[in-house]
What we know:
The chain has 298 residues and is an alpha/beta fold. It has helices spanning 14-20, 43-47, 65-77, 94-108, 123-138, 143-155, 167-171, 177-185, 208-226, 240-254, 265-268, and strands spanning 2-7, 23-25, 28-31, 34-37, 59-61, 81-86, 114-118, 157-163, 189-195, 198-205, 230-236, 259-262, 274-280, 295-297. The strands form 4 sheets. A 5-stranded mixed beta sheet has the order 2-1-6-7-14, with helices on both faces. Strands 8-13-11-12 form a 4-stranded mixed beta sheet, sandwiched between helices. A hairpin with a 2-residue loop joins β9 and β10. The relative contact order is 0.17.
Amino acid sequence: MVRVITDSTSSIPVDVRNDLGIEVISLIINRTGQSYVEAETDLDAFYQDIYEMIDDIPTSSQPSQQDVRNALERIQADGDDALGVFISSKMSGTFETFLRIAKEVAAEHPGFKFAAIDSMTNCMELGHAVVAGAKAAKEGLGLEDCAAAVEDSLHSSRFLFTPESLRFLEKGGRIGKAAALIGGVINITPILTVKDGEAATAAKTRSQKKAMAKIVKLFEEDVAAYGLKNLVVHYIGSKIPAEKWAEEVINPLIGFKARVVPASPVIGVHVGPAVGIAYECKQRIEGKSTSASPEVVL
């Protein structure tokens, strides 16, 4: 049997994780001397005072090596294989830590098999891929086939979101101070995505309202070309704007009620209040770059 492990930045709702038996290793959020285990934190409560974080943006740290080892040793002891799918290695060292410790466990226990995939993304774009792998595992597929399901999902998904302002990105050093100032003066609002493992600009508009409309247009173009398999509405900060957008715009467009999910604070505190969508298409998106081939140890 294949067991799937991911990290808390995947933002997978608890009921989905439980239903599919997905194991989550949590990153840690550090704020004003207090540490929060991301997977155990009430994210709406955490985001409640997000505006107060602008002058002292929280930091994050990857899961402890012992937590990673404990998870792998539990899986090994049960006689199962492990499939690890993690946040982009350009954003965190979590993937490298898992890979190193998984190799150690495999060396200590001949017969233990694992696969490790650098998703080159985060939040529910990562989450959709993890779910795809877990569903394949639930169907009884082997390690290589489950890894292939993850890779297929990563090639078929996209994450588009727009921040309320550029202030958090500038304060966190994610964009230059001049770019943030110009954006505020002439009211440029970017549509952000994840490309080649890092945050990137998908488009620029003159207001957040226009940015939201542009996200819908980009989404419709993908769906027309590749079909729609899964979608969540993501938010950072208050849930209310995301719920309103989902109800008034996204749900009528897709014909079902989209799940509204808070984005990982490990990512969110560097972006600030924002709304967006993470979706998975039925076919691979042309030109979509993702991780290298998974490392599989048999």
